[in-house]
């Protein structure tokens, strides 16, 4: 397994870190809320709501990242070390993105989001 493939797993795990923050940061999530967790999550405010939003964004971006890593590996034109470095940089950008989302640093979060998307696109260019 390459470092980049492990990074795909880490990206998916980061999504669930956000889920834990969203559901349990305010101490109100319990067995009763688990019967309809989407309604519970839709009613969150503040930090927990931002954690939920970070979770949703992670669910949106992870397929693109996974596809980029897999395609770069299949095409085989890119140096494996380059793919690994790009993947680690993407994970770093996602961690910073989540921190910025939780801290409510909107402008910095958006800048980091663009950088992360640029990293996803770069997998395709290094594979040419």
From TrEMBL:
In terms of one coarse class, where is the protein primarily found? membrane
For this record, the Gene Ontology CC terms, alphabetical, are: membrane
**InterPro entries linked:** MAPEG-like_dom_sf, Membr-assoc_MAPEG
- Tell me any Pfam family this protein matches: MAPEG
Residue ranges crossing the lipid bilayer per the database entry: 85-103, 110-127
Its domain of life reads Bacteria
Q: Where in the cell is it found?
A: Membrane
Keywords for this protein: Membrane, Transmembrane, Transmembrane helix
Designated name of the protein: Membrane protein
